[in-house]
Amino acid sequence: MRSPVRKAVQFTALLGTNLHLSGWVTGGIFTGISKMFPIPGLWCYSTPSSVLACPAGSLQAILASPMILGALSTGRPEALALLAPFGFIAAVGLSSGRLACGWVCPFGLVQELLNGLPIPRIRVPEGFRPLKFAMLLMFVLLLPLFLRGSPAAPGDPWFCKAVCPAGTALAGWPLVSMDHAGLYRTGFLFFWKSSLAVAVILLAASVERPFCRYLCPLGAAWGLLGKVSVVRMRVSDACVRCGRCESVCPMGIAIWRAPSSPECIRCMKCVGECPVKAISHGP
Amino acid sequence: MGRRFPWWIPVLLVLLFPAFRAATHLTRTVFGEQGVLLTGTGSLDSLIDAAGTRPVLLNFWATWCSPCVHELPVLDGLYSEMAGDAVFAAVSVGDPDLSTLVSFRESVSIAMPVVWLTPSEADSIRERFDIPSVLPVTIVLVEGRETARIVGAATAARFREAIGGQVEEPETTGSEEALHFYVVGDPSDSVTVQLHETAVSLAGRENVDLVDPSTPEGAGIIEGNMLPALDRPYAQACRGLACYTPMFSADQVLATFGPE
Question: Closest by alpha carbon to A217, among A94, A48, A91, A93?
């Protein structure tokens, strides 16, 4: 069953995040005050129309800042800045797990739109799913914090720098293609990330939400926090294990087996589809 | 589920390739023994006087000069190796603010004495030792007389030759080297655009790097080339392994490099 309400929320979030539409003409990035605030979803800060920040990018930027190791070791006030992106991610995840993935995340919507293309479906082995947790741990937390020339040198936002297909497709490609003044340099990383982005786009046409399933570090964090979130998916004893929920799930999971699965993006498709109304979402 | 092959591990290893590649190209700063930081011309003269008949190697540098920062560990290694057979000093003649040097030393240890000069002292020392506008410049003095001069960054072997009096003749400023510009700033900023256009008109597009410090790539270029981290757009010109002071306006660039 299609949910017009969810689609409306998703499109509203997409538009609300991308109010700086002129960026797509000028090839410039919006730098207003709203960029201090993150969107509860994944959407590149450098997308020409974006007026908000990506929480994963903000977290990496803070962890990669030159003073952070010193701040952490000495308790200097800069360390408090860590609380902002960590706090935002924790607040979203602890309140409702991956609900934002299913309802707000603009890149989730982009993948859903891509999935409407008439491409043959393929089945991806389940063994790829833990990759997103490794993305969170390695590319968002450890590499930005520790891969640097010296403790006082800046690190890099490694997920943005070496992986993120949303950043490549919706920021890197447009900015480079509109670069009439020859301002940007492209090299190994641009082609590396472009290959990844092409792979994810092709995969998204054939598999529902591949980025959310296998790569998204935000989804990984919110999925883990969702296990203890205030509101959760619930499956009552009325469940007859018919498997209808699994057949409609965009994340390809059987919610009746694991209601607190970190894979669930709480899109609620299964809630409406369940013939015995055994699935619910609430405190 | 138990038979599930952990496909995520090989994919993770592949995705880690750029980070591995970067890790092997990191510019590691040296963390050795931190030497003394002296201030003023008087300190420099005391060092020179205390040398007696030993050679004195004076390295004129600045924190904004990437070739200077790259060669500091080389000189410092030589300083430790020579263990007092020669007197060394890294003389900062391009950092008007002492705090810049102090914070630089928080991340890089320099065992040899570092001398900071006020802007007016730096001017008179530049005049006294005939230091050109590019840095680094290294001179060797024996009993107060200049016996060798190297303009631009050099190898340990070359410094050793210079201390031994084997550098045949004073080097020129390297004016035969092509001019190269690093323009650092927000590409949408009008000052950056002007600096970039001016640099391109003087050196040609292939000799100008436009670096946006807010992008990961730009931050990488700044770190990799040890370009100065300033809070406003600038253009820094280099010839080979010697660099000019950062310039903040197109007029300043034109006044230095433009046609007479």
Answer: A93
Residue A186: closest CA among chain B residues belongs to which residue?
B217
Say which residues have a Cβ less than 8 Å from residue B31's Cβ, sequence separation at least 6.
A150, B109
Q: Do B8 and A134 touch (CB under 8 A)?
A: yes
Beta carbons of A270 and A259 less than 8 angstroms apart: no
3-state secondary structure of A1: coil
**A-B contacts (CB, under 8 Å):** 98
Sheet holding B145-151, edge to edge: B37-39, B114-116, B87-92, B56-61, B137-142, B145-151
Amino acid at A191: F
**Cα B192 to Cα A101, A246, B196, B239, B247, distances in angstroms:** 39, 55, 6, 21, 11
Under the banding of pLDDT at 50, 70 and 90, the label for residue A20 is: very high
Q: What is the mean pLDDT of chain A?
A: 91
Nearest neighbour of A162 by CB, restricted to B15, B219, B221: B15
Q: Which of A125, A150, A187 is closest, CB to CB, to B7?
A: A125
The C-alpha atoms of residue B120 and residue B127 are separated, in whole angstroms, by 11
DSSP string, A67-92: THHHHHHHT-GGGGGGHHHHHHHHHH
Determine whether the interchain pair B216/A160 forms a contact, defined as Cβ–Cβ distance below 8 Å: yes
| pTM passes above 0.90 | no
> H helices of chain B, where?
8-15, 17-24, 41-50, 66-82, 98-107, 119-128, 156-163, 190-203, 216-224, 250-257
